[in-house]
Every structure is written in C-alpha cells, then in structure tokens.
Amino acid sequence: MNMIAVLDKTPGNSGTHAAFLEALHDAGFAGEIGTGHDTRLVHATDNSIYQRHPEAVICPRHRQDLEVLTRLAGQDAWRGVVFAPRGGGTGTNGQSLTDGIVVDLSRHMNRILEINVEERWVRVEPGVVKDQLNAAVAAHGLFFAPELSTSNRATIGGMISTDASGQGSCTYGKTRDHVLGLSTVLMGGEVLDSVKRDDAELNALRRGKSHVARIHDCVAAIHEREKETIERIFPKLNRCLTGYDLRHLRDAEGRFDLTSLICGSEGTLGFLAEAKLNLLAIPPHSILVNIRYGSFMEALRDARALIGLKPLSIETIDSKVLGLAMQDFVWNSVESYFPEDAAGPAQGLNLVEFAGHDAAALRETVDAFLEHLRQDRTVQRRGHTLAEGRTSVSQVYAMRKRAVGLLGNVQGEARPQPFVEDTAVPPEKLADFIAEFRTLLDSHGLDYGMFGHVDAGVLHVRPLLDMRNPRDAALIRPLSDEVHRLTRRYGGLLWGEHGKGVRSEYVPDVFGPLYPCLEEIKGVFDPHNQLNPGKIAAPARCREPLLRVDGVPLRGAQDRQIQDPVWEGFGAAMHCNGNGACFNYDQDDPMCPSWKATRDRRFSPKGRASLMREWLRLQAGAGIDVATLENAPSSLVARIRAVFHRRSRAPLDFSHQLYDALASCLACKSCTSQCPVKVDVPDFRSRFLRLYHQRYARPLRDYLVGMIEYALPLMARLAPLYNLGTALPPVRGLLQRGFGLVDMPRLSRGTLQGVCDEWEVQPATPERILALTQAERARSVILMPDLFTRHFETGLAAAFVELAARCGYRVFLAESLACGKPLHVHGFLGLFARQARRNISVLRVLASAGVPIVGLDPAMTLVYRQEYRKLPGLSATPDILLPQEFLLRALKPHESKETGQAHVFIGHCTEKTALAGSGSDWQALFARLGLTLTLEKTGCCGMSGTFGHEARNVETSRVIFEQSWGPHLDGLSGTRVLASGYSCRSQVKRFRGQSLDHPLVALLERLRALSAV
C-alpha cells in the first residue's frame, strides 16, 4: 500500500466564476486571485462549526480594487456571482464563509492611514488589527476602546461588521460608539461616505438619483414611519447586536448618520474600504480585584451586586476554563493571583477592574470596594488578590483572553462548540438565566465551559459535542431553538456579541413586524443579493431563504470521512478549532513567524492543520488507510521507484500543495505551546514528509541536512579544508545550485582538549560515573554537548566546562550523540526512532547514577524531552538539562557590587515557548553575581536550525529577522546583547555582522573577575 495522488475533488472554479475572475483581471484588478484548492480550503472555515468551500479567494490591494470589483459585479452578466468579505477569520457563526467568492480584506488593506492626536481620531483600512492600531497610538497615550479576547488578530473591519464589544463595554461602549465615519464601496462601484447630516443636507441628498441617494431616502423613510416600532422592538441591552441598527440613526443633536446601520451588517451591505475611529486617553492607573469563589453560581450571583459599585468591567471564569489555564504556559505569569486554599483551587472567578486618571481617587474607590467585600456576607467568597498597574492587569487578562482557545483543548473527542455561546440578557437576570441554561444542557447530558462579561449580561457557554458523531451534530438544531426561546423569555438575544451569520433564521422572529424593513434595506443596498446572501436579511423580491443552523455544511461532516485510527493518531492537528491564535499580529510574539512574514494563511498552524485534515480525508476517500501506511515498512521497490518519481509527473496532486505549505514551517515549535489547542505542526509535518517521499523523490538537500550530524565528526577533522571550501564562490555556487543551501557556517578550529586538561575533565563512561561515591555524585555534572555546538561553537562547550568547575563541580564529558533533530524535521522518522533508542540506552545508564546531564543548545537539547517522549517506550526519557537549569543549583550567590554594565537577553523560540520561565532563570543567575539582565521580548530570528540556510527560504528568513530582531538590535546599540540559540547568533552575524555571546560567556567572565579579586 502507498499514498496516491489525490486530486482536487471539491466543487470549485465553475464556468461562471472562472469567466468572472478572468473579466476581473482584465478590468485592472491589481490584487491577488486565488483558485487553488489549498487557498480556497483555508478560507472555508473560521472559528465556527461550519465549512463552506468558496469558488475563489481574492485579495484587493486598495480601495480602487474594490471599486473595480463592485463595478464589474454589478453588471447584469454577473448577478449570480456572490461575495463574502473576510477579515481575521475569527467569527464563530460563519459570517465570512461562502460558497461564492471570499474577498479577503486583511492581507493587503491593513494600513493605518492617518493619526490625529489633537482631535483623537485615526483613519484605517479594514484589515488593520486592533492590537496593531493600539500599538501605533499608545505612544500618544491613546487607545481604541472595544477590548476583545481576539484583539491580536481581529481586524477593524471585522469588528465593525459585527459591532464587536468585549470587555468593558458597559463603560466604553461597543465598536459602533467609536466609529466616526465609514467609506463603504457599494455594489455597482459607488462609495458611500457615512457622515452626520442635518435635515437640510439629508433632504437634499434624498432628492438625488445616485445609489447613495436612494439608500438614504429608503432608510430615512423607514426610520420616520417606524420610529415607535423601532423603539419598542429593539432590545434595551448593552449588547443589542441586531444587525441593521435602526435605533441609533440619529445622534443627540438629531443629525442623521448611516454609520450605525453599517456597523453590525456583517458584510451584507457593502465592502468597507476605510474607517475613521474615535480614540480615548489611556487611563494610566488600573487595579484588578481577583475574587475567588467556591462555585461558579456564587460568582454569578455576587457579580449582580458588584455591578452596582460601578467598576470598569467584571469578567467571570468558571472552573473548567481555570483548570485548562493551569495547564497552559500562561499560568506561569498569573499563578500567584489565584492561590489555592484548603478546599483546593477556586471553582469560579470574578475579575473586577477599576481604572482612572487620578491615582488617589482610584485607590479610594478600590478601598471602598474592598470594604464592601469585607462587610458583605450575602455570598461566600474564598479570598481575593490585587493586580496593580497595567502590566500586572494585562498578565491576568492574557489568561482570560486565552479562554476561548483553551476550551478547545479539553481532552476527548467532545469539544466545546460555539453556536449558542454569546447569549445576552439583562444583567440582573443573568444568574437565573444561566441556572436554566445549565439545566437545559444537563437534560441533554452535556458538559460545558463558561466565561464572559457579567456586567453586560453576556456569558459564553460552549456545550461539549463530538461533531464527528452524527448524534451530537444533530443536537445543533434543538439546542439552538431551545436557547433562542430561553433568551427571548428573559428579554435577551441569542446573539449578544458574536453576530448572527448562520443563525440568521432567527432574525424574523426577533424583529417581527420590522423584518420587512430589513428586507427593504437589504434590497436598496444590494438589490440582487450578492453580498453575503442568507445572512441577516434578503431583498423581499429575491425570496431566497435565510441560512439555517442545520442547513449549512458542518466541518464535522467532512472530518467524519477520516478513519478513526487516523483521526486519533494525528491528535491536536485534527482538533484545531479555528480560533486563529496563530494569526497573532505582534511581531515580538514567537507564534508562527512564517505567517507573519508572508501573511498567507496557508502558512500558519491553522492553515496547515486544515490542509493536513483535508489531505487525510482525500486519502481516505481514495481507500488509503494512512495509519496502516505509516506503520508498514516501505518496500525496496517502492523506495527505488520514489527516487525517480518527480513531483512534476503529478502536477495536480493536492499532496504538493500540502508539501509547499509545510515547507515554509520553521519547525520552531512555538505552535506547540502558544496555540491553545497545542497544534504541533512540526510533528505532523515530519509524518507527512515521510509518507510524501515514499511516493516522490527527495531533494538532495534533505539527505545532506538530515545526515549532517553523522558527517560532523569527519568534517571537524577537515575543518580548515571545509572552511576554505565553503568560502570559495565556486563551492558556494555548487552548494546553492546542487543542494539549495546558502551561507553555511564555519567550523571551530579549536578542540576541548585544552580546557579538559586544565580542569581535569574525564570522559563520561558508565563505569566511571557509576563508580562515584554518593558525595562525589552530588558535586559532579555530565556535559553532553550536541554535535553542532561541539563542532561549530567549541568555545561555548569550553565555557560551560570552566564555569561548572569554578562552581565546584567535577565535570565529565559525554560523547556527543546525534540527537536526530535534522532527521525528524525532514521526515526520516525511521532513522530518527532508531537513533533515539540508541541514545536513550546510553543515557539511561548515565542517568541511573543521579548525576545531572546537561546539553547546551536549546533546540537540540529539548528534542530529548519532546520528540523522544512521543516514541513508544520512551516516555520515561531521562531529563537532559539546559545550562541555566543546572546552574540554578550549582551557582551560589556572590556578594559583590553591580558592575553597571547592561546585559540584554534574547531567548531561543523553542526554549522560551517550551520553558516559559527560562528567561527568569537566566535573570536569577545573573543577579547572583551582581549582574543585571534585561529580557528583550522578540519574535523569531528567522534561522531556526537549517531553515534559514535553505535557498528557498532565504528571503522569508530575512523578512522574519527584520520584523522583530533587526529593529530590537538596532535600538540596543552599545548594549551587550546575549542570545541562547546558536541559530539566533548565526542569524545576527549574517544580517548585522554582529557577534553575540551566549549568557554562559558573560557569567564566566564575571566569575573569573570575582575570583581574581
């Protein structure tokens, strides 16, 4: 059995759409037009339970592209072509999903156009991310208020389209409250600039013949004749997310403005091209009161009373979300705020924030609040802590923000599903409403997680369902109906925060006699129902039905086609819930550097997981059992055939599209910790490459890189010849043309012999280690440098030897083992497993003596803890320590004055994501010697092992470096910068000509200086 070429079987690229796309190109559209199965697939899902395959994906570059698109689409010939605007793709209800054409406004239209500090406003394109905007205006003491849990990837266009709100909305309002004006491109090509108009201006406009004039006339007429009905039907809620907002068409001065109508319209009325937004002054002082409870219902009932004390916001978290946070890297920074007591961890939390511009007044308010907590006995509280200052408050909120993604990481096939998760009711009714909601879910035997904004009456409730199980999937309809009825009975809405999307079937029931008005509005904006049809309303004359919660294809139905053993075997990759944490805008966050560099959603953990899931589905459809295929040895005939089978012989194989998406992965492993679901792209990348190259020939580069550890000892003996050869232009050209490799590093000229002789270092043989007495073992350490450090940075290994010896330890030098990381990265998994088992048999003997074993390079050393432990029988692999972990027990504090020299530390991606406290460990070590070490927050350097040395990746590697490391290094001129990763130091040398030291070198220098005193 072997994998086969699986072609694109998904409907797409129909004749009409292909003709339209050709006409669009000929009309001067300057953006990108994507029709590949891979591009369409990664836009077929969002953060919802649905999957709709678009015909194409187009990415406009500017407003002119939108005008070209809408002029062409408005022609009679193309009335059957439909479109859905898309921003960050984080919607939970399928708002941006379509079987027509996706218009991705995030890839190119993401510029901040103007910042007016004096008047406190900003102009932006729709693809600007909220955190991107706030980072740009923070230097002026300003911010854009609506605070979302997805703020690091949610676009302004998406926020406007769903009238997003989030935390603090009772104080700051919703997105609509901060939009000063919009430029919307309408079908047909006209641009509607929504501004405030007095009656004279409005009446003059209504007499016109343009599309913009007809829209104003229609909406104004509805508002005039239905004013009383609008006031009666629109719910009096903080989160009255109702779609076409007719209630706020006139401001306090009576001026008419369509901005509120477009906010929350979910792309059904036009394409947002530009937004003018109001900015607020950042409150410089903030305090967060973290209150713990014995039950979640106690937290809810207490919140009802706490609202009256007028905090900025109250956020609530239940025990399930809290328990998941405890297992996440984020817990390292917030654990002290949530101490356990005799009864164990809290079962519910209220996070109550106070902020202001006057520190004394804020303290007085908080003191009064704390006095209330002491005096009030209506609810039993288990204690509280304070997070004071923006940094501390942000740390706690970072945990709260990860709640959505963390819920997706519960164990088992039943996962929290978003479809009734943003109900809104009057806050005073929330506790009773949730009690009934929980009874409803309990009646179906369902588990669930809860968190939300209790001050606004919004709680996010996600029932756990296995969407691959038809019985669970069938619950979507009855649960949606029952929760809709429950919210209406409590005077609320099914959609309090995340929009309607596929849930639009309930719109007529909510609006009753006003629904025909919504149809009329839709008809005047989009007469042929081409913009996101099926959502909110349809033109009355079209008579096309609204989407139904059980009438749109479910992602689980696609996943059901993958065999259970395969599904279970690929684990987290299959459970990616589309929350989009990997689309993190922050260039100084390590999450997925390839996405940041390319802004191509295929090259993100979410995109790659989607493509991998599809590849497995297609293999299953072709009768291939991938689980069996992985475990079956490849025959000699098959291996020989693969050597001669070039991918060009099967150009339409979807496997090539998956291969290309995975080829851009740096294997930095940030996704394994930063992704809330822990999607491990390097793991399934390696597994796929192994299968792919059973069918298609490997490039020579893979063999050279994969086997380099075995060649290094021989290369080291010929170091002068190797160094000379790699510096010669002909050799460099041969390496690039023949193997696709560039900028090969130079081997060290020295050896460890000198330092070993000086400090009486002996080989770490089992006999020698096991012969040590207990006292000798307590003061001994085994250094096992990886082959790269030993032969490319011999001086670093020598520095550790001397440093450990100066700390009073006897050092033993172990043989440098080929850890196999290059083999794993390139999919030589059989060889990797054999090498791992050989290594562990050696290490278990050495480790049995209880002497610590230390590696040096983070990426190579952590392979023993990560990849090795996934192999059958190797879960109990001995710990190989990183140097700082060992030195924390070996290096004693020295009484000395600070030197005054500034040291800055930049950690390796794999190290700082796998070991969240590694930077703090280095700081503690430096402090013991009277040194100050500052941690610099950066993203990836772009090298990541051999990634940056591959010719196909050089430009991406450079972009990644310049997005984060480059600006930081340029700003640290004159400061001694230290880096723990060999790849990182190599990258800095390549792109800045600057040599960085490992922190071990700085510690050794200081210890020498102290010893000389």
Protein architecture, described:
This protein is an alpha/beta fold and 1013 residues long. Among the domains are: 93 residues, Uridine Diphospho-n-acetylenolpyruvylglucosamine Reductase, domain 2; 90 residues, Alpha-Beta Plaits; 137 residues, no CATH class; 180 residues, no CATH class; 120 residues, 3-Layer(aba) Sandwich (Rossmann fold), CATH 3.40.50. The chain contains 48 helices and 26 strands. Strands 12, 13, 14, 15, 16, 17, 18 and 19 form an eight-stranded antiparallel beta sheet that branches. Strands 5-6-10-8-9 form a five-stranded antiparallel beta sheet. Helix 7 crosses helix 8 and helix 24 packs antiparallel against helix 27. It is globular and about 95 Å long.
Brief account:
With 1013 residues, this protein is α/β, with parallel strands linked by helices. It is 42% helix and 12% strand.
Structural class: alpha/beta
The residue fraction in helices comes out at: 40-55%
Mean pLDDT: 91
Q: Report on the biggest sheet.
A: 8 strands, antiparallel
Q: Could you name the ranges where pLDDT drops below 50 across 5 or more consecutive residues?
A: none
Shape: globular
- End-to-end distance, in Å? 71 Å
